[in-house]
Amino acid sequence: QVQIVESGGGKVQAGGSLRLSCTVDGLKFSPYAMAWFRQAPGKEREGVTCISWSGENIQYVDSVKGRFAISRGIDKNTLYLQMNSLKPEDTAIYYCATEWSVDCGGPWSREEGVRYWGQGTQVTVSS
What we know:
Layout: E1 3-7, E2 10-13, E3 18-25, E4 34-39, E5 46-51, E6 58-60, E7 68-72, E8 78-83, E9 92-99, E10 114-117, E11 121-126
Parallel strand pairs: 2-11
Antiparallel strand pairs: 1-3, 3-8, 4-5, 4-9, 5-6, 7-8, 9-10, 9-11
C-alpha cells in the first residue's frame, strides 16, 4: 500500500539546476527519515543525502556538499532535492527512499537502510 513517486528529472547543461520532488503515500503514522540515492550507468547505486523526520539532521555525500539541498514538506510526506551547479558526473537515475531510521541514524547511505524505494527519475547533465 506504500507508494513513492519521484518527479522533476530532466536534462540540463553543466552549471544548471534542477529540483526533484517525491511524494510518499501510506506511511503517515510512521516517522521516518528519507533519502535520495542515485545510480549512474554501470555503477552501484549510492546514497546522496538523507533528512530526518524532524528535518534537523541532514547528511550529504561529499561529492554534493554545497551544491545539493534536501528538504521535506510540512506534512513530512513530500521530499525535495534542490540541485545546483550540476556537473556531468551527477548524471544518474535518482531514487527517493524512505529509511528504517527516524534520524538518519542507520546506514542511510546504504541500501540496507532503505525500507521503500521510488521508481526513479532520470537526471542528465551535459557539458
